[in-house]
């Protein structure tokens, strides 16, 4: 089939998912009184809105950028406004024929919504295990197709460590593996390699073990990135997870300790520039902020010392500085045709 036709169709489907995430953020704004607090106030920073509502500025920032990406709020250099036309639609329930915010509810389980509201109220998130079995399944199905079909043939051959080395007794660690889709793909492709799949989520690991069955060269291990041991590893993968970790710095320090001096890290992060107005060219940017509120930011704020990076927090400049601070000398962007994510080879 024609590739452009498939891409247009896929964009249409993902925009439907984006609508679900924008619906979530409108529901949060309604329940937390955020639209009411912004009405007629002009442009506000996340800190100003936090002071007005007595809510935490970090999740407010994610919410504000998400709805600005969806054109529900106006944005100007880190400040946000509910436009005047938003008041009758999102605030004036008693007097406006156009009021619509009350229609946004029950998109997600009430327990999850309550957890996210708790993030705004207390500044404390939740780990993935506490979000239930469905979250592990959703993450698996979101990341599974690329890991299953493209990781081995399209990404690994670009690494300087070489696929021959992996096949001839190479040692691989998949940090933050989730249900282990990437780990399984590598273990099946390179039966001579030893693959360690590491994740703190018991729910995700149980799902991964049940799906993968008996693969002799694949071991699932429960633990945080900081618990990684058994090196040196020829390849350590951190795929779409570093920004979720409360402390990506200590995670990278552990990876540097365990990677071979001639080994590599493979890091996958959301495609982002760090400049909101530039990133708005991504037609699915609002969806990314919605996912961040129900997953990435919740996880990143699940400890008192969490960095709270969120879904877009590790763009290339930020990642380059972070790996340099933890003993890595080279970061190289790989040529991978994934419209939503960027892949990097990092060398000690």
Question: Helix and strand layout, with pairings?
Answer:
Blueprint: H1 3-31, H2 34-38, H3 46-53, H4 57-69, E1 74-76, E2 79-81, H5 86-90, H6 110-122, H7 133-149, H8 151-155, H9 163-167, E3 171-175, H10 181-189, E4 194-199, H11 202-212, E5 218-222, E6 233-239, H12 248-258, E7 259-270, H13 276-279, H14 285-300, H15 316-324, E8 330-333, E9 341-347
Parallel strand pairs: 3-4, 3-6, 4-5, 6-7
Antiparallel strand pairs: 1-2, 7-9, 8-9
Give an account of the 3D structure.
The protein has 348 residues and is of the alpha/beta class. 46% of the residues lie in helices and 15% in strands. It has 15 helices and nine strands. It has a seven-stranded mixed beta sheet, sandwiched between helices. It has a two-stranded antiparallel sheet with strand order 1-2. Helix 10 links the parallel strand 3 and strand 4 (194-199). Helix 1 packs across helix 14 (285-300) and helix 3 (46-53) crosses helix 4 (57-69). The termini are far apart.
